[in-house]
Amino acid sequence: MKNIVVTYKSHYGTTKQYAQWIAEELGATLLERKEATPAELQKYDLVIHGGGLYASGILGIDLVVKNPINNLIVFTVGMANPETTDYTEIVHKNIPEGLREKTKVFHLRGGMDYGKLSLPHRGMMAMMKKMTIDKKAEAELTDEDIAFKDSYGGNVHFIDRASIAPLIQYAQEL
């Protein structure tokens, strides 16, 4: 693939950082979601879209699922550990069935600085904690629950440039 674009939508910067690294590694054009148009995407042989995960939604995914794209890679960025998290429901909710089979999806781990969260996002995190973590007995907590509980209200970052290697390899092999 010679002509590649990386699009992204990021609230707090971790998805943007991954998108920058991916574009750099592949020699691709980098476009923030608000700059990208369906007509612009048609100029590229491969579109790679990155979006942060919020309430099981992938930010900016509408751009690539509502417009025909021949070669599509999607990467998500969230707090959960991709090695132990099942993203099937999120993928099914965000990528239509006909497109799902043609789209390769990668999941990357981001970070969170509670001090920088918007009021609505802080409220969502508090509600999530109350509805899941606070209702479970200590013995029922999963590793993900414990990590969430331990990091709640703080500043934690798992962003790692090395984690993009499988995506880069896949894109180069197309």
TrEMBL record:
<dbReference type="InterPro" id="IPR026816">
    <property type="entry name" value="Flavodoxin_dom"/>
</dbReference>
<feature type="domain" description="Flavodoxin">
    <location>
        <begin position="6"/>
        <end position="136"/>
    </location>
</feature>
<dbReference type="InterPro" id="IPR052200">
    <property type="entry name" value="Protoporphyrinogen_IX_DH"/>
</dbReference>
<dbReference type="InterPro" id="IPR029039">
    <property type="entry name" value="Flavoprotein-like_sf"/>
</dbReference>
<protein>
    <submittedName>
        <fullName>Flavodoxin domain-containing protein</fullName>
    </submittedName>
</protein>
<dbReference type="Pfam" id="PF12724">
    <property type="entry name" value="Flavodoxin_5"/>
</dbReference>
